Each structure stands twice: as structure tokens, then as C-alpha cells.
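Changelog excerpt

This revision adds worked examples to the README so contributors can see how folded entries look when concatenated. The first example is reproduced verbatim below.
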Amino acid sequence: MSSHTDRLRALREQLARERLDGFVVPLTDEHMSEYVGGYAQRLGWLTGFQGSAGTAVVLPQEAAIFTDGRYTLQVRQQVSDSDWEYVGVPATSVADWLSAHAPEGGRIGYDPWLHTRAWVDEARKALAERGADLVAVAANPIDAVWGDRPAPSDAVLVPHDDTLAGKSSAAKRADIADWLAERKADAVVLSALDSIAWAFNIRGDDVSHTPVALAYAMVHADGTADLFVAPEKITDAVRQHLGNAVRVQDRAAFAPALAALSGKRVAADPERAVAAIFDALDLGGAKILQVRDPVVLAKAVKNPAEIAGQKQAQAIDGAALVRFLKWFEETAPAGALTELSAADRLQAFREATGALRDLSFDTISATGPNGAIPHYKVTPESSLPIEPGQLYLVDSGGQYTNGTTDVTRVMPVGTPTHEMRDRFTRVLKGHIGLATAIFPEGTTGAQLDGFARRPLWEVGLDYGHGTGHGVGAYMAVHEGPQRIAQPFYPGGQALEVLRAGMFLSNEPGYYKAGEFGIRIENLVLVVPVAIPGGEQPMLAFETLTFAPIERTLIVPELLTPPERAWLDAYHAQVLAVVGPQLDPAERAWLEAKCAPIG
């Protein structure tokens, strides 16, 4: 089918054959992943939307696509308004919309492997008000009409060395067994891909830019485990790495294994395990303990080996980014670059390090109006020429075996306007405000979010995304549970307590629709800090990312003396970390960029 209109029509015809009056299409997979493999890109295939969060609902005469404030512009560019109604969340939930639009007495289908049980309960309750039913499908109807749907990846698993992980898989499973004993539970189901990768010290290549493998797992109270994965993905090296205490079974055996846990007390995470998992446990007669996956927090608090590895990766990545920024500044004014060619060049600089395993996400290479789309994804169709008078925003990162990077910088092409410099400086002030925050143990990311927004708020400005997300250790570039954002922001809550050892991003921004975008992003590490005379245990942030912040975009008069001192000290660190990796011409360029702001 050549058009998205044809695909929508084909899905409606399939729903009619299955006696369904509607169907809900989320952007996730059976592991509730944010980034998914090509086989699970059902929302993108159906609608054309290329963002990383969204849901669609298809009814016989109506269709709606639900996105949050990060994608307000993007969804309108990529999804036809002749076929789809745009609905903003969280102002209107999918359940709310269904309660108003579903046919009375209708049957609305959903795939129980793609939704949480909480969502199912909410949607079922909303539909009941219309006399309609929510119906679980045995097979996803999109798959029946998606003729060239990619197959799931068959890439083999790769052991992740214990020296990089900082702890053996056996020790991690022993900790999980202790956790189970405290709760008098027999087993825990792990379905989040990054939890499985962390717990078993394995990595994979099944999801673009995220080194995880498609698998399920159960860890038992005796420290043994069952790993459910396609047999062709297991090598002798992986078997030896996993050891005799891990039983490897076919991925297809997972659902029957759930049903066989009759009488067992089984822990499962209601936020990360899909409804089908709970349904199978219920059907088999297990006693379900609904609690957070024990790996989530353990994975988020990095150990010394992971922290050291991240710092090494950041140093390598910083040198690659510096080389790119120098090249860009020298090349862009000629007017021959495009968003795509610039992104390709940046990737080439990272690949030249010899250490890059993958990008950590699709590079956001955005000039002019595309920079005002926070989660813009450049394509051959959307790629714009980079022209004088514009701001170029590049948000990018790499996956290295010792760390995961994510950094955003903005470069002017030619002379920036006063407005551009003013907005950039206010974003920088917010970035510094968060970078220098000192806060007591027990503080949440929501409590710190305003530190980054205040300089914008003071002149009536703001940005429509979170200020910081968690980051993995050679893992997902977006890792929970920690966040820095307003308490209930699009994408999730930010009420997790920040703990020493957590990685987060610091990325305030400003976006002028149709003209330009600004974001300054570094990764930070939560560290303990001693305050002379203080009475409370305190925490602070250590900056991990090292690349110059463009000085021609800064209005020095807007910076306070402490802000100038921070910027000068940061640039001195950039020069110390990155400078030794550069040739003389590159180092001279960096020295000029890192000179005191004056």
C-alpha cells in the first residue's frame, strides 16, 4: 500500500472482518519499550508519525492520533489531517476520547501484549459508559494488513564484561533473590528489555540505538533464572557467560511458563509488564505481587565501574563532537550543507574514534524552523539546507561499550540576531542554575525543574518538554525512573527521589515556532557534597559532558559573576579533558572557544 490513507482503509476493512468497531494502536512493543524494533513500528506504518511516543485510535468513520506537547508541530507535519484528528495528551486521554466517540454498543479491540493492565481497566471503564466493550485480540489486525512487515531481529546476544558492568550477573541475581525473600515471593517476571540486559550482563542488537535483546526472564528465589529468547540468538559464548544457573528457553515458551506458576507468589511490575502477562498469571492461578521491577532502581544507581566507564566514553565522544563543531563552523557558511549531510559527518567523526558501537538515538540535526521541533527526526524528505542567518541545533549521542552519551549544542551560521543571543543566554542561565544546584537527600526531579526554567519564566517564556531524563550505562539513552521535569509532564511522572550515582541529562531549551530552536544539554552525575556547617546530607551534580558552549551566542552582560565563573571553569575542564586528544589545529580552535568569557 503506497499511502497511509490506503493503510488506514485496509485496517478498517480488516477490523470489519474481525467484527471490531475500532482498534487502539500504541507506539510500543510487548516489553513497553520507548524505542522499538522495526517489526513493532505499527503506529508509524499506519500514520506516518515518526515520534517516540504516541497512540492512535481507529473507528469506522473517525481516527485520532494522540501526542504530547513535544510533538505538537511534528505530528502535523507527518500525519494527514484529512485522515486523522490531532488530540493532545494529557489534556485528553485515549480513554476520555473513546468514552465520547466510540460507537454505542461497539467492540473496540486492543492487543493485550501492547498495553498495561491499568490502561485496560481505564479504557474498559470509559467504554462501559457508552455500553461498549473492550476486546482483547489474539493477533494484532495491523499485522494482517502490513504486507512487508519486518521480521524481529535475529542478532545474537553478546556478553557484557563484568569489569564494565561492575558486578557479575550471579551477584545481581543473588540480590534479586534476597529481594524476593523479603517479600516472601517465589519469582519475579522481568519483561523490560533493559532490565534483562542489566540483570544478565548481556547486550543485543534488536532495537536501533539501544543495545538490548528481545527476551523475557524469570528470576527465582534460589537465584536461578529462566531466560526466554529465540534459540538462534544464543551462542556458546553466551551460554558459558550465563552459566548453569540460567536455563535458556525458547521465547515462545514464555506465556506457557507464566500459566504454569499455579500457587506461586510471583512479582510483576504493573508499569512495565503488559496486560497479557498478568492475564496469563491469573489464568494459571499464580498469586500476583504488583511491585516495581527490582532491577529498575538498582540499574539507575550506577556503581564505580559504570561511572568510570561513562567518564571514559564522554571523553572520547567529546573529542569527536569538538572535531565536528570545528568542521561545521568552517564549512557551513559556504551554504553546501544540509541537515542530513551534517548528521552523517558527525556520525563519521564518532566512528573514526574506533570505539563507537552505535548511535544512542537518531541524531536531531535541525536548522531554522526544524530546530523548533524538540524531537525532530531528519529524513530525506524533510532535510533542509543549512543557510546563513539560521541557528543549527544538533542533539546526538553514541553507544560505547563503557558508556552512553547524549549532548546538544547550537551553532549560528553567520551572525545571530539579538533575539537569538538573548534566548540562548537565558537557556544557558537555566542550564547553569541546574548544574550548580545543591539539594538535600530525598529531593525529586520535580523539585529541581524550576531551577532551569526560571530565567525564561522571568521574561514570559518556557519550553514544552522535561528538563532531564535518566541515562543508562551502555544501555537506553532514556532510562527511568529518575527525571527532572514538572511533576506530571508528558511522558511520565518526575517524582522519583534522586540518589547519588544516577546519570541524568540537563537540557533546558527555547523554541520559536517556524524560526529556530535552542537547547543546551550535558549529562550529569548525582554526587554527595559536604556543606561546612550543614545539618543535612546533601547532593549535587557533577557534569560529565565536555564540549564548548558557543560563545558568540552568549550575551555576557546577562550572566551573573557566579554564572560566568561556572562557564569559565566548565570550559577549562573541556580543554583539559578533550584538548590532549586533538591535533594542534583542533586544539587551537578549542582554546579559542574555551577562553574566559570576559
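The second example, added in the same revision:
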Amino acid sequence: MFQTFDVTANYAESAARVARLRAGFASASIDGFIVPRADEHQGEYIADSAARLGWLTGFTGSAGTALVLSDAAFIFVDGRYTLQVRDQVDTAVFEPVGSVETPLPAFLRERRAPLAIGFDPWLHTVGEVRALSEALEAAGGRLVPLASNPVDAIWTDRPAAPLGPVRLHPIRLAGEEAAAKLERLRTALGGDRIDLTVLTDPSSIAWTFNIRGSDVAHTPLPLGFAILPAEGRPSLFIDAAKLSDEVAAVLHELAEIRPPADLLPALAELSQGRRVGLDSALAAERLRMTVEAAGGTVVAFADPARLPRARKNAAEIAGSRAAHRRDGAAVTAFLHWLSIQAPGSFTEIDAAERLERFRVETGEAAQMPLKDVSFDTIAGAGPNGAIIHYRVNRTTNRTVAAGELFLVDSGGQYEDGTTDITRTVAVGEPTAEMRQRFTLVLKGMIAITRLRFPKGTRGIDIDAFARVALWQAGCDYAHGTGHGVGAYLAVHEGPQSISRRGMAVLEAGMICSNEPGYYRQGAYGIRIENLVLVEEAAPVPGGDLPMHAFETLTLAPIDRALMDLSLMAPEDIAWLDAYHARVRDEIGPLLAPDAAAWLAETTKPLGGS
């Protein structure tokens, strides 16, 4: 199994750990300390050695921040974790705060107290520090960078840093040689008069150097940094213990290979009198401090690999299509298995394990093995489905009972692509309300899928299309409609997204999820998710503008039992019939006979039903 269901954190010791953390405040001359869920790379995917927030609070979500003051403590989470945080955190120690409604800087500003708040400059971006400093200074306080992290001083059994082996990503799947990518990035530096930049995002390093790693769970990332000068050889800062002789030889052709401990001294030496580009949304404050202390000038500069990495090339797109066909076969086999299970005869963990086995078996049959799941499977039955990012464990594991909805959000990591799919199914007979809400969510998913939009459109411009049907019924969902997805990289990839914060332009070659939902606390959750590829659309006769559209990559049936056809427009039904016909044609031949027969039945045209 690529995932476990053991409880990885709990809040039993939170009060004692917070007390020990506070005991160091006086010697550091601070009134509080910020503990984000972050590492030196500011990524969503962190190693166990960087899971300070989870160790301190018990919270295991993928985003959150704790603020520990001398007399109070708070944990900030977004709408995905509103329910989860109260289950995982001792609310007698940490008071949950909605990070969207009240971001940490606003919270500090509103307290109007002259506080000295400590922080680890490796764990906050340049932009975050700027916002926090302005908020504290407005209240007469100040932000205090600490030389070492006080959580580390009390975390006596902290895991060692990871040393996952690095692998070469083959050119047939990468689609472009690493040397050519490096040249493209150098050109971007010269165009902005930048002398050098630091690549801090492991996804950018993996993409640029055509390597993959295993330093974090479920995401093939090698942790490291790179300094890319406008002229001269790059330097890659990565532990040599991760590199085989073959990998080291290839990388030595591209860059100087240096230990991670050399990063700050090398950056200081190279920064003197030079313009250093740092991405304020990705680069750690410690890097800015190092550059300016050495006499360099920090220039705001977006990670030059981020957009090229998001715009998939022909080889990456072909790989993603192939991965989605295999993955669709595995998910469809799983959905068939679900359909023949008696309600009450299986649990959430049973289902997650069975789905993973289908992925393994399908990959092996195609000689493209599953490398990992792309995240811990969300398998939420009944009220657990209403927890947006629910992760089943042996404590919360629930038997899937009749009359419930079962939400399964999962994905796979294959060498040729990364997948992410959500299906919600009825176990037994659904209620009229369940069918109505499901159909409204489905209408939103179809609305996004069918969109044609002008070149230059951003995710924020189209997010509302997924919500309109729900809004008209007085409903909504507390997460974005879609996130970017990498090419055998991170299942959550920027800069693209379809959300209220999606400011990046949606460009041809980008892959996004399309996943509206609805969640009734204590009862059920609904989410339907396909991955879509942004592509250039055929010109509209008589039209004035070049247009883009979406190609659906995900191939698996959607539960007919939950559809209320009276709420669906003819064009919705036509799209769904065409989609199901495609699923039947492409996935059916990959299935065992009994599953293929079930697929043929469950994808019959709705128009005639």
C-alpha cells in the first residue's frame, strides 16, 4: 500500500508542548511565535521532519498556521478544514479561526497590541513577511526573525531530513531536454535584467532538470534549491546521498552539484552588487535577508519555471491522456465493485484499499506501474463526506451504510501523468434532496466543461459558472472549483486555478481540475471532479476573438441514480450522453467482462430514459 490509515498526529500532548514553547519566549524577547505548515521550500508537500504544525497541534491538513501567544493560541484554516480542525485540535488550547474571513495579518492588526512576534524566516515567504510586518507595525508591534526555530528545540524525536533517491525523467515523457529548459530560463532572466535567481520550488527543480524524487509523500519531488545565473553554470544544492552515479553524471553536465549547506554562503557571494530575482510568493524570507546583507538588490521576479512547467508540451499531454485512460479503467472497475457490495458490508478503508489495488493491477497490466497515489484517498461515507479534505484513519473509519452518499476523491502517480478524480455514489436509495443537490453540482461541472472563453481569461473569471445552479438554490461550497495539476509532479500545481483567487491566465496546455461540490454538515458531501486540459478552440464563424476551451481528460462514469433529469437542460443531458459514450468506448475494452457489461448499462443514453 502507498498509504496508511494509522493516526499520524493527535492533540493529546498539545497543551504540554505549547507550554514548553512559551517557556522560551522570554529568552527570545518575544510575545508569541508563528508556526505555519511549511518547509524551506514553501510548498504544500512537506517531509515528516517539517511537520511542525501537526506535531504541535494535531492538525494534519495541507494548509494552516498556528499563532501561539503568551496567554492564548489560535489556528488559522480555510473553509476546506472548518470541520476537520475541530476534530483534530484541542480547542481548549487552540481557538480555530477562518483564514479566509480573518487572515493572520488582519487578525494581528485588529488586536491593536504592541506585540513582538517571532518567526522562522525559512518558513515564510517574502510576501508573507511583508504583510505580517505591516500589520504588526500598524499596531505598534514588530516581527522578529529568529536564528533557530524554537519548535525544533523542544521536538526531541523529530524525524531526520529525507534522503529519497533521485531518478532521471525520460525525454520521451519530458518532451524537452533539460539543457534547453535551462536556456529558456536564462533568457527570461536577461529579459528582466536579473543577474541571478533562486529556484526554491522542488516542482520547478524537478521539471527544469528532468528529474523526479521521493522526499515527500505521494509527490515525486526531490527537495533542493538551485541558483540560476543569467550567465555561467547553474548550481544545484542537493544532498549527494540522493544521487546514483548515473544521475550524478547527468546532472554534472548541467550544473555544479553542491550540498544544501552551501546555499546561503554561495548566494551571499554571488549577490554582491547584483540584481537577484526572488519570487515573493515562493521564496523564503531567509533568502531575501541573505541577499540584502551581502549587498545585493532583491527584485520581485516570478519563478521562471512555473509558467513553462504549467504549459504542458505535446509529450506531456500525450502521457497525461494515456495515464487517464488507465486510471479511468481502474476507477471504473472500482465503481463496479462498489455497485455489487451490500450496504453495511464494507468500510471506508476497505474501499480505499480496494481502489488502490485496482490502480496497481491496471498499471501492471499496461506495463506502466503505479508509482504512488497522488494524495491520501478521501473516502467519506455519510457525514464524513461533508469534511471536505477528510482523511480516513483507523479511528474515524466508518461502515458505508444504506441510504448514505459515499464520496471518493483519489488519484494516481504514473510516470506518464498525474491523475485526480472524485465520484460520489448513492449507497441504496438516495433522498430527493440528495438527488437535487447532486444534480446542481453536476450542472456546475458541466457548465465549466462546456465553456468557450476568450484567450486571456483567468480562473477567477469563470469560477462562478460552476456555482450558478447552486446559488439559485441558496447553496455554495467553501473551496475553489479547480486547481492546476502537474505532469508526474504535484497534484496541486500553480499558478493556474479556477477559483475566486485564480488570477493566472488559463493558457493552452494547462491542466486543471473541475470539481464543484456541496456539503451538508453532519449528513453528506457531494463532489464531482474531472481533470480538463486547456486547448485552443476552433474559430467561431463570424467571431472576433481567438478562443480557448477544455478537453476532458478524466474517463469514468457518473452515478445515474443521483441525477434528477428534470433539473437538467437538454444541452446538459447531451453533453453527459456524449461523455458516457466516450467513457464506454475508451474504457470498456480495458475492463474485465463483468465490469464492461456494467459500464455499458450505467452509461446508456439519458436522453431516451
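Reviewer comment on example two: Residues 314-339 form the longest helix (26 residues). The first strand starts at residue 32 and ends at 36.
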